[in-house]
Specification:
This protein has five helices and 14 strands. It is of the alpha+beta class. Strands 5, 6, 7, 8, 9, 10, 11, 12, 13 and 14 form a ten-stranded mixed beta sheet that branches. The longest helix is centred in the middle third of the chain and has 12 residues.
């Protein structure tokens, strides 16, 4: 049985003009279920921009278009492990546990890092993303000026991002570079072997570019997929989950000297 539903509906003349009443009429979903979906962030208003709408009593007008995404098996992630490395007025640095979305999906953003920070009643700008399966350090801005500067620094590779991973098999080369295009775009990954076990290698990784799933795809490409990766690689399953952690971040701006953030020892792989 398909647990996911998607409705795209348009308000016509004569339709109810309160959101919850209109959606009940247009989708035939129950009000109680729609309230859950609204709270989770699964209802979108389609105007000039596609935006989540959460208030059940919002007024609607003829011509408005809404999309409703519902997954009855959607479970909210455990966010108890989220903590701040620094929480300032202009930007903040946080630890995201594995299993937590950076910003959610069409079906909802409740329990995502972005939504957690939005609940602090301040502006929040997502500067970069981590895959849901990846634990590690994330950076957020809280003013438009800070967001513009930090985003540019990410694009210009001025912010250093260090990852730790345990990959399948033994990598013989102690220091290496993976230079392989991804999706038709240049992608460059630097790595250093930290230690080897009988069946795996621990590596420290620095991404010079920021392509989708770059580290995961690059290490699969050289025959050493990251252990526990559910998407890339073969015979690399691991009950511990994806063995990839965004362990360090260096931010050059606001400070006279670059400010370095690193995870607690118990959250690192080595």
């Amino acid at each position: 049985m398909n647990t996911k539903v998607h409705h795209k509906v348009k308000v016509a003349n004569g339709d109810p003009l309160v959101l919850i009443d209109f959606l009940t009429h247009a989708t035939k979903m129950s009000k109680s279920r729609l309230k859950v979906v609204l709270t989770r962030g699964g209802v979108w208003s389609i105007r000039r921009k596609k935006l989540r709408v959460r208030r059940a009593t919002s007024e609607v007008r003829a011509g408005d278009i809404f999309e409703v995404y519902d997954d009855t098996k959607l479970e909210l992630p455990d966010v108890s492990g989220v903590y701040a490395l620094e929480d300032g007025d202009q930007y903040s640095v946080w630890f995201k546990p594995a299993g937590v979305f950076s910003q959610g999906t069409p079906y909802g953003d409740e329990g995502s890092m972005l939504r957690l920070l939005e609940k602090s009643k301040r502006e929040v700008f997502l500067i970069h993303r981590l895959d849901r399966e990846t634990a590690g350090i994330m950076l957020f801005a809280h003013t438009s000026k800070a967001a513009a500067m930090l985003s540019k620094q990410f694009a210009d590779n001025e912010i250093t991002k260090i990852y730790q991973a345990e990959v399948k098999g033994k990598i013989e080369q102690s220091i290496g570079v993976i230079d392989r295009d991804l999706g038709g775009k240049h992608a460059l990954t630097h790595y250093q072997v930290i230690k080897r076990t009988e069946n795996s290698t621990f590596v420290q990784i620095e991404l010079e570019t920021g392509r989708l799933h770059q580290a995961r795809r690059h290490f699969e490409a050289i025959g050493h997929p990251i252990l526990g990766d559910p998407k890339y690689g073969k015979k690399n399953k691991d009950l511990r989950g994806l063995q990839l952690v965004a362990s360090e971040l260096t931010v050059p701006w606001i400070f006279k000297e670059p400010k370095h953030y690193t995870l607690n020892e118990d959250l690192r792989l080595f």
